[in-house]
């Protein structure tokens, strides 16, 4: 997804914001990203315990959502 966005000219910031995601972003990430992730069922500590750190993809896409660089519609197009 990120590669496709860069190829289409979107500016992507890889700087960490340090802020926790809002509930709407966290819910969107769980629905659009985690539920289709091959690690969700067995191998992701974060899927079991939200106190564990999520993966880098979750953090990056969460920051892109929070900064409105991508939208929920963009996540729906992640095939
Ligand atoms: S946090 Fe990352 S590794 Fe874990 S289920 Fe979500 S997308 Fe997959």
Task: Describe the structure in your own words.
With about 80 residues, the protein is mainly α. The chain has a domain at about 20-75. The chain has five helices and no strands. The mean pLDDT is about 85. It binds iron/sulfur cluster.
SSE inventory with pairings:
Layout: H1 2-7, H2 23-32, H3 45-48, H4 56-66, H5 72-76
The structure holds iron/sulfur cluster (SF4).
The site of iron/sulfur cluster has 12 residues, from α3 and α4.
Oligomeric state of shown chains: single chain
The separation of the N and C termini measures 8 Å
Mean pLDDT, to the nearest integer, reads 86
Number of DSSP-assigned strands: 0
The global form is globular
Count of helical stretches: 5
**In percent, how helical is the residue content?**
40-55%
Work out the strand percent: under 5%
**Unreliable runs, pLDDT <50, ≥5 residues?**
none
The SS-based structural class is: mainly alpha
Present as ligands are: iron/sulfur cluster
Tell me the series of helices and strands, N- to C-terminal. Answer: HHHHH
The major β-sheet equals: none
CA radius of gyration is 12 Å
Which key features would you list for this structure?
about 80 residues; mainly alpha; 5 helices; about 45% helix; about 0% strand; globular; binds iron/sulfur cluster
Provide a short characterization of the protein structure:
This protein has helices spanning 2-7, 23-32, 45-48, 56-66, 72-76.
């Amino acid at each position: 997804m990120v590669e496709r966005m860069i190829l289409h000219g979107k500016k992507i910031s890889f700087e960490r914001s340090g802020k926790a995601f809002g509930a709407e972003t966290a819910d969107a990430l769980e629905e659009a990203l985690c539920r289709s992730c091959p690690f969700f069922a067995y191998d992701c500590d974060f899927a079991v315990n939200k106190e564990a750190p999520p993966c880098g993809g979750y953090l990056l896409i969460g920051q892109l959502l929070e900064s409105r660089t991508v939208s929920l519609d963009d996540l729906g197009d992640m095939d």
